[in-house]
Amino acid sequence: MATYAIGDIQGCYDSLMKLLDKIDYDDNQDTLWFAGDLVNRGPKSLKTLRFIKKLGDRAVSVLGNHDLHLLALYYCGQAPKKSDTLLPALTADDSEEIMTWLRHLPLVHRDKKLNAVMVHAGLPPQWSAKKAVKRSQEVELFLQGENYLDFFHHMYGNLPDQWHKSLQGLDRLRAIVNYFTRMRYCTADGKLDLITKEGLDKAPAGFKPWFKLKRKTKEDRIFFGHWAALEGKADSPNVFALDTGCVWGGKLSAIRIEDETWFRVKSQEFK
């Protein structure tokens, strides 16, 4: 019985199957954690969604920015971008069922027994793990409520770029979502830079990678994806970077949470 945290799949279903073979996945005993960005840019987003949805309680997934993008396209009736590979997922016979399931996924998953937190992009330095789960639940309740369309019509935007307790309404929700699904660099007081995507040596002036700052979560083990440029190397205690660029021809990675053993397979789709 083991728990495996898996990085950004982005529709690379064949790579996922290869990785599950490598870890000798037992669907009767093992649990899979997915770090979000299940879809987009890879060729088999729909097949990936169907597979993970069918796993039921044997899997935990958090929402990534590409997953939210898919939901926004679907619920707002917008056409995909040229770089998107989401049309099959948007037009399938079971799309409504899939989108409802996706909309009910969390932004943050915490397992106290494993001392483990899963999030797509990161946790701002000023929030504890308990506070992060509480902020995640604010968004989850809204997305699962009757006014969820309002969020998807106002989801995009880099502002507000810093958390304040006084934030309300859709601005408050957007700030929370941007921390959890888009953050790479920020300041000690949580101001975001949402432009820079390069690695650790390209930090904008005044900013640091979120996990290099003094954090309230320094004793929590944090598993995250989103940042392919890290190539799986966060170089910080208790922080595990899972996105190793499978969709860019890199690798798809998993880590067994109990003993922190890594498993990687080369991209099957983009060799």
Overview of this structure, please?
The protein has a five-stranded mixed beta sheet, with helices on one face. α6 crosses α8. 30% of the residues lie in helices and 16% in strands. α2 (45-55) links the parallel β2 and β3. The chain has 271 residues and is α/β, with parallel strands linked by helices. The chain is globular, with a radius of gyration of 17 Å. The protein has a single domain (3-184, 216-266), classed as Purple Acid Phosphatase, chain A, domain 2, CATH 3.60.21.10. It has eight helices and twelve strands.
Short note summarizing the structure:
The chain is about 30% helix and about 15% strand. It has 8 helices and 12 strands. Strands 3-2-1-11-12 form a 5-stranded mixed beta sheet, covered by helices on one side. A 4-stranded mixed beta sheet has the order 4-5-9-10, with helices on one face. Strands 7-6-8 form a 3-stranded antiparallel beta sheet, with no helix packed on it.
**In total, how many domains does the architecture comprise?**
1
The CATH class, by name, is: Alpha Beta
What general outline do the C-alpha atoms trace?
A: globular
> In total, how many beta strands?
12
Please tally the helical runs, counting DSSP H or I stretches of 4 or more residues. 8
Task: Name the poorly predicted regions.
Answer: none
Structural class: alpha/beta
Strand order across the largest sheet: 3-2-1-11-12
